[in-house]
Amino acid sequence: MSEVSVNRLVEFVKAHYGTxxxxxxxxxxxxxxxxxxxxxxxxxxxxxxxxxxxxRFEQDMATYTGAEAAVATVNGTAALHVGLRLAxxxxxxxxxxxxxxxVATCNAIHYCGAEPVFIDVDEFTLGLSxxxxxxxxxxxxxxxxxxxCIERETGRKIAACMPMHTFGHPADLAGLVEVCERWSIxxxxxxxxxxxxxxxxxxTGTFGTVAALSFNGNKxxxxxxGGMILSGAETARRAKHLTTTAKKxxxxxxxxxxxxxxxxxxxxxxxxxxxxxxxxxxxxxxxxALADDYRQLFRGTEFQFVDEPDGCRSNFWxxxxxxxxxxxxxxxxxxxxxxxxxxxxxxxxxxDLPMYQHCTRGELNTSRSIAQRLVNLPxxxxxx
Length: 384
Ligand SMILES: *Cc1c(COP(=O)(O)O)cnc(C)c1O
What we know:
Layout: H1 2-17, H2 34-44, H3 52-65, E1 69-73, H4 76-86, E2 94-98, H5 103-111, E3 115-119, H6 130-140, E4 141-143, E5 149-151, E6 158-162, H7 173-182, E7 188-190, E8 198-199, E9 202-203, E10 210-214, E11 227-231, H8 233-243, H9 267-278, H10 280-298, E12 304-305, E13 312-313, E14 320-322, H11 326-338, E15 344-345, H12 365-373, E16 374-376
Parallel strand pairs: 2-3, 2-6, 7-10
Antiparallel strand pairs: 1-11, 4-5, 8-9, 8-13, 10-11, 12-14, 14-16, 15-16
The structure holds pyridoxal-5'-phosphate (PLP).
């Protein structure tokens, strides 16, 4: 049974991409105006830190997501770092997040001098579980005199909650917003993987104080490297200031009023982004069709296709299946990779990495079960 399913998967992926050559997990595709727009930046000499494509990319992204404002950054990790700072995270604070995530989520917390608290994920979203977060808070936190949420044992402030929309599937945002409001914790969404994903009709990354997107080469659209901060207008002004060396506008003087960052997105990268964003609706349609085929392929097998949660519209950035156990996962990984079809297990849990091993955590049973059984499948849009 298992052997048959794996063979059918390999045959399906090869037929879908029409090749016997190596099939990567996720490769960028440039089928629109990328060459023209990038060439324009070179012709104009505005390839670097100022230029029209940066403004256009920010405006187009705000329009697409429905966010009040968008600020482009050099990568998604930088967007997360500044996003956390804008939410008020500083030295010695705690930030609630999930153990099942990419390392950048936790690194951004660390850059603020804060530490992650690892809470379990929900099985059907793969995102931070509001129920698990509420339980942990009831056991370990209280609101102090000023209304701030404090870890009782250490007195450390729980300064933010940062869920991640795993593989583009929205986390339970209604539940998370409710828990965050009850405990006065700012919500910062790691929406790096979820451009094009909607929760009850609203774009992911517009539910909290601030959110981060990524346009790394493996994401649904790419700028080579790049990211975006989504927020309200006032927060966006602060974001722009902090990400551009905190320079005050002046015709010629260098006036910097705080320690800022050089986190700007170069105009040449933004040109790529504008062209890619124009194609996002097509990419989303193709990815949804591929997800439909994967769902059909695994129906009635021992493999469980990871589907979009109820009430959500996922971007299906990276398709995934849950295997019945670790042994069958390993078998699937070996058989596909040996046959030129790239597949990967999910990240190691953050709480098991050497630099985050000491961090506080709740129960992580679902995270552990998923980490042992999940396999990501080739999900690229087809080249031109
Ligand atoms: C890609 C990604 C990021 C940020 O990535 P950059 O490579 O810095 O753009 C952050 N968090 C998650 C979950 C990601 O997948």
